[in-house]
Amino acid sequence: MNDVAVSVEHLAKRFRMYHEQNNTLKSAVMRGKKSVHEDFWALKDVSFEVPRGSTFGLIGRNGSGKSTLLKCLAKILYPDQGRIQVHGRQASLLEVGSGFHPELSGRENVFLNGSILGMTKKEVTRKFDEIVSFAGVGDFIDQPVKNYSSGMYVRLGFSVAVAGTPDVLVVDEVLAVGDATFQKRCRTKFREMREEGRTVILVSHSMSTVRDMCDQVAWLDAGQLRGAGDATPVIEAYNATV
């Protein structure tokens, strides 16, 4: 069995930053020139490996490239250079309410989101009570999710994602929306996943959370990898620059 859950190889992602953009054909004709832009590289030659069965943290300042990297992992964005290899089934929770339809009830969204994550209707039905219990939204499960708080959104979305037993779970800072009880449940779930040989990739600005929950860490700075390895020394090196 491969001991690597995720391999990131020479990853680079470019965005175009427009200074004078032609939004219509008329504006292009009137101005008589092409839109003016410059290239911005959000990620530059990033390479690291995530061990199978680990909880792996991504750290760095705002604008360091963490969110871009997560979106590449989740296949929301595609790199301009390099590649990502994920071994096994992956689930991603990057934004509050991602995959939910606001007009549908929590119950309907559980089945909808479960199907998006590759679960069968029978599998979702079997795990439904467990999902609702973990999320703690039992009293509101038949209400439209547009009436949910951001915390309820996150709890339900996370519950569905982990119920699908992904081999790799990618989680953004959205877990910070949860209360202390939910944070404790998440830590317990991450330990269970690690014991089962499954992998979690976690982004957080809370170094105490990363230190407590992560085995290894990758540190991004201005789109470049500054360090990767055991959590404590990488976090200490990062803290020294803050």
Radius of gyration over C-alpha positions, nearest whole angstrom: 20 Å
Inertia-based shape: globular
User: Describe the biggest sheet?
Assistant: 6 strands, mixed
At the fold tier of CATH, the topology name is Rossmann fold
List how many beta strands DSSP finds. 9
The CATH class is Alpha Beta
- Total count of domains: 1
Report the uncertain regions: none
Strand content: 25-35%
The amount of helix comes to 25-40%
Question: Structural class, from helix and strand content?
Answer: alpha/beta
Strand order of the largest sheet: 5-6-7-3-8-9
What would you say the CATH architecture is? Answer: 3-Layer(aba) Sandwich
On the 0 to 100 scale, the average pLDDT is 87
Order of helices and strands: EHEEHEEHHHEHEHEEH
Q: Count of helical segments? A: 8
What would your notes on this structure say?
- It is a single chain.
- This protein is α/β, with parallel strands linked by helices and 242 residues long.
- The chain has one domain: Rossmann fold.
- Helices cover 36% and strands 29% of the residues.
- The protein is built from eight helices and nine strands.
- The protein has a six-stranded mixed β-sheet with strand order 5-6-7-3-8-9, with helices on both faces.
In short:
The chain has 242 residues and is an alpha/beta fold. It has one domain (4-239): P-loop containing nucleotide triphosphate hydrolases (Rossmann fold, 3-Layer(aba) Sandwich).
Per-chain topology:
Blueprint: E1 4-20, H1 25-31, E2 36-51, E3 55-59, H2 66-73, E4 81-86, E5 90-93, H3 106-116, H4 121-135, H5 150-163, E6 168-171, H6 180-195, E7 199-203, H7 207-213, E8 216-221, E9 224-230, H8 231-239
Parallel strand pairs: 3-7, 3-8, 5-6, 6-7
Antiparallel strand pairs: 1-2, 1-4, 8-9
